[in-house]
Amino acid sequence: MRWPRVSIVESMAAVAIVAADFAALRAMSPTIPNPNPGMAAMVVVLEVGLFRVARRRGRSRAFWVGFEVAGWVYVLAHMAWCRPIWRRSRSLYEAYVLGVPITSSDQGFRFILSAGALQLALSTAFALLIGLACRAAATDKTPEERPCPDASPSPPA
């Protein structure tokens, strides 16, 4: 397999976008009590996917479009219901993992990392499944190459 050539401009653009993501996450940290590292990582993965959408064609592009749409839907839905999800996740973590309420910062840090890893795994799995479904539904043939459904061969005379 041949590696694609990436220009310095493309590399600089990717670094600038990731840097802007982390700057936005840092700016939002005072308003969000527990920033989710899993969702931050998923946003970076989705932005890399946007570069992949721009460079691909055919069935491969269909996969990346499906991956992007599903991933962004998941991230936006998570942002809309962030507080109830975190509250429920914390209560489940305290009840089934720790057995006691979180009291130290070390326990809180472990909770944030484990919840973030779970969110990253769920969002990536969801996006991958939708991307694979889109790829399976896509065809490489152009409309001119596809057989016309109502054009049946004429019967022999």
Structure description:
- It is a single chain.
- With 157 residues, the protein is mainly alpha-helical.
- The protein is 72% helix and 0% strand.
- It is built from 5 helices and no strands.
- The longest helix has 33 residues, at 105-137.
- The radius of gyration is 22 Å and the shape is globular.
| Total number of domains | 1
The total of helices stands at 5
Radius of gyration based on Cα positions: 22 Å
Tell me the overall shape: globular
Structural class: mainly alpha
Q: N-to-C SSE series?
A: HHHHH
Strand percentage lies at under 5%
Through-space gap between termini: 53 Å
The average pLDDT score comes to: 79
- Main beta-sheet annotation: none
The number of E-state strands comes to 0
The portion of residues assigned to helices is over 70%
Could you list the spans in which at least 5 consecutive residues all have pLDDT below 50? none
